[in-house]
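[step 3/7] inverse_fold.run input=structure_tokens len=789
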């Protein structure tokens, strides 16, 4: 009733001021927990007391973390109900009110169970024993029933001590929401205007939106980072596919641009999502076969449970692998290297670099209050197992990664608001991109964990042997163990050896020689002059051909190197061909034809301009006028034109390597889309899109930078209708056409928001245009000026 009838009044009063919001909540609950991220405060206080506690106090029989938390039962049950978080961001309470009254308690039960795991195991909450279970789904939700082992392990039923805590949390939350609304509506006379109906629903029907403080651009917050304030999270195969497919597309486009766009390659001097997508597709196929026999109150069919367990184990492996990579990368990044001392160790013919923290690695609770960014990144990249519980099977993880990513996002947002640019810049573009992928995988893993009934967990040993999909083939053949960033120790022979078993390891001399060859090719590419001046000149064409030839040589070397690695690990030819396909965009016939067409158009423009100047010159001579016309004759004959470069030019393309199937071309990717779609946009948006899609005959490539907010606004133009939404933690933002867009149901595209400065540079703007052309068929003629058509 409150949300529907008084929506506009509630929103108006709640948004009035932070002080008003604080008073409303304190009147309802004078003991409401004051701080956001309560767990950090609890752990910090616990360790502080452990250090400062006088020895004269004698033996303490209950010196546990649970004891420190028992005086705050509400925040242990509902960690997002705190004064700081709800007071600073008014949309949180309103979104909470909207979604909790829109969905039933049973819809929220899987989510409400998540924050209880750690508190339950620490003994932070008062519990009561009962040998029965509580039903957590369907029309009998909340009903007491006899213990059933299989259904309890599948989370359809929950043991009474844990289940009653979920019901308590839901009851306390709804009571809190109602009492706060009562306080907000004090003094109303009951005469509600029709326009007030569903005002909150209208504001939050598309999600938890964040309006930029310096512009009108709206980006919807990630549901993963704002789970309590979004719709209840559920297991959704289509959402899993969407995450995996959009990430795979983004990384494949990155490789494609690295091979075909020299400017893009110069800017970037990935881990594949293909195996994850394949595993999700396998789950979808098995689900379709058994969908009529999958019921929430019955055991899962064995093939479907095995497919889910395989996906879950693969995601856990990817998290472990990427976390180790970030952990080893972190000390060498500019924003964090000052915390480390680097020591070089030489043993015989081998050498290692050991980063050691200067602050002697203080505890994370202590770091949180001294360097919140460092604490977040170290925790996200660290092991998520409590050392005390390492021996317990399926123990509750030490940290909730969704909360950690939310802490990181909140910290960066606050720093931008306060103008702390140096702090924001510490998380550089490389790290932000890595954490963005890590967040997406955690989001997928959490979604798989919401499946009811839940599948039995299995480790790599129990799954890897029986699974044959690509991801498991790479794990079983130890492909990921070949990582160059590995831990090492000095062996009895005085040489450095890997701390972890690395079968089929490459000989050191071969590795050094192979990497030196790639380094030589990279240096040759970087030494090639960049094209300068006008594009409508033969000199520009020659320079462009030279840099593209050098880039092709570099990627030919990369293909040879990757083939050698796969052959050494005994991969079959099908896997080798599949991998090399992604690394062969520069030799694709469609790309070569497109490049030739572009060069031919530029040559034609040169001919046209030359003849025009010659005609002017002849007319001047005929009038007996002395003129000085610059010599702009082309440096080629207009017959069979060949670029005058000593290196192999792309104008004479190299043969396509044997055995490499051709990847989907740019034109093929857009072939199924409707052609000649045009939209009218504002003048500012038109300028942005013309910079992204310059005509081939343009004098020079665009050197215009664009603010991220301006790009978001341009994509949201009414006839385009692309909604920006943070897909998970990190810099990734997905753009998805709404139901009114002419590209509705054509999929979504993910771009990385520039960091630390939210400005898209010319090279990135051009690459984003190429990706939009590839997936949606956009070009310079797609956009018209509004009102001029």
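[step 3/7] decode complete -> sequence:
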């Amino acid at each position: 009733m409150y949300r529907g009838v008084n929506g506009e009044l509630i929103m108006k009063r709640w948004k009035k001021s932070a002080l008003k919001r604080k008073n409303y909540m304190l009147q309802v609950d004078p003991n409401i927990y004051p701080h956001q991220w309560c767990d950090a405060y609890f752990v910090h206080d616990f360790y502080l007391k452990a250090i400062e506690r006088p020895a004269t106090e004698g033996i303490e029989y209950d010196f546990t973390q649970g004891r420190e938390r028992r005086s705050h039962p509400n925040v242990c049950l509902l960690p997002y109900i705190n004064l700081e978080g709800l007071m600073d961001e008014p949309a949180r309470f309103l979104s909470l009110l909207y979604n909790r009254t829109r969905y039933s308690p049973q819809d929220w039960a899987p989510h409400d169970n998540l924050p209880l795991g750690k508190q339950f195991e620490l003994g932070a909450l008062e519990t009561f024993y009962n040998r029965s279970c509580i039903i957590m789904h369907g029309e009998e939700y909340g009903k007491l029933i006899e213990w059933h082992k299989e259904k309890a392990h599948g989370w359809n039923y929950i043991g009474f001590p844990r289940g009653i805590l979920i019901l308590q949390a839901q009851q306390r939350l709804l009571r809190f929401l109602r009492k706060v609304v009562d306080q907000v509506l004090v003094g109303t006379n009951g005469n509600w205007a029709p326009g007030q109906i569903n005002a909150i629903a209208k504001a939050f029907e598309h999600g938890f939106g964040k309006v930029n403080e310096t512009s009108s651009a709206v980006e919807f917050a990630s549901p993963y980072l704002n789970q309590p304030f979004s719709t209840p999270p559920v297991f959704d195969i289509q959402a899993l596919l969407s995450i995996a497919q959009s990430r795979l597309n983004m990384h494949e486009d990155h490789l494609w641009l690295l091979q075909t766009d020299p400017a893009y390659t110069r800017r970037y001097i990935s881990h594949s999502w293909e195996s994850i997508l394949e595993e999700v597709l396998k789950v979808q196929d098995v689900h379709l076969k058994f969908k009529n026999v999958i019921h929430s109150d019955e055991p899962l069919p064995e093939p479907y449970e095995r497919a889910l367990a395989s996906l879950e184990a693969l995601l856990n492996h990817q998290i472990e692998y990427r976390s180790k990579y970030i952990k080893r990368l972190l000390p060498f990044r500019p924003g964090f290297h000052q915390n480390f001392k680097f020591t070089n160790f030489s043993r015989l013919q081998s050498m290692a670099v050991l980063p050691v923290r200067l602050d002697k690695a203080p505890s994370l609770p202590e770091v949180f209050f001294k360097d919140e960014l460092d604490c977040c990144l170290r925790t996200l990249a660290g092991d998520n197992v409590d050392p005390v519980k390492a021996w317990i099977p399926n123990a509750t993880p030490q940290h909730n990664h969704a909360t950690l990513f939310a802490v990181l996002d909140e910290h960066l947002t606050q720093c931008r608001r306060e103008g702390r640019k140096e702090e924001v810049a510490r998380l550089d573009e490389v790290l932000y991109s890595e954490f963005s992928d890590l967040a997406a995988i955690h989001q997928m893993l959490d979604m798989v964990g919401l499946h009811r009934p839940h599948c039995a967990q299995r480790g790599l040993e129990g799954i890897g042997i029986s699974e044959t999909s690509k991801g498991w083939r790479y794990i079983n053949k130890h492909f990921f163990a070949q990582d160059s960033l590995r831990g090492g120790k000095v062996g009895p022979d005085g040489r450095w050896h890997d701390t972890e078993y690395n079968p089929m390891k490459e000989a050191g001399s071969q590795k050094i020689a192979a990497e030196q060859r790639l380094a030589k090719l990279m240096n040759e590419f970087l030494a090639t002059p960049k094209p300068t001046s006008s594009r409508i000149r033969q000199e520009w064409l020659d320079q462009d051909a030279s840099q593209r030839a050098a880039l092709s040589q570099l990627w030919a070397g990369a293909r040879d190197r990757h083939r050698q690695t796969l052959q050494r690990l005994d991969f079959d030819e099908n896997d080798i061909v599949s991998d090399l396909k992604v690394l062969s965009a520069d030799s694709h016939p469609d790309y070569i034809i497109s490049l030739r067409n572009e060069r031919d158009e530029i040559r034609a423009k040169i001919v046209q301009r030359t003849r025009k100047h010659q005609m002017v010159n002849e007319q001047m001579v005929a009038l007996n006028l002395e003129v000085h016309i610059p010599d702009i004759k082309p440096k080629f004959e207009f017959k069979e034109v060949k670029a005058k470069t000593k290196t192999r030019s792309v104008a004479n393309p190299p043969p396509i390597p044997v055995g490499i199937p051709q990847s989907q071309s740019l034109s093929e990717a857009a072939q199924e889309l409707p052609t000649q779609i045009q939209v009218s946009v504002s003048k500012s948006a038109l300028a942005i899109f013309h910079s992204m899609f310059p005509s081939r005959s343009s004098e020079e490539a665009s050197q215009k930078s664009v603010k991220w907010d301006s790009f978001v606004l341009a994509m949201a133009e009414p006839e385009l209708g692309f909604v920006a939404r943070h897909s998970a933690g990190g810099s990734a933002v997905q753009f998805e056409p709404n139901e009114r867009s002419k590209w509705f149901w054509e999929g979504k595209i993910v771009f990385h928001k520039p960091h630390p400065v939210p400005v898209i540079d010319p090279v990135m703007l051009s690459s984003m245009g190429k990706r939009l052309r590839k997936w949606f068929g956009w070009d310079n003629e797609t956009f018209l000026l509004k009102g001029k058509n």
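[step 4/7] annotate
The longest helix spans residues 589-622.
Residues 2-202 form one domain.
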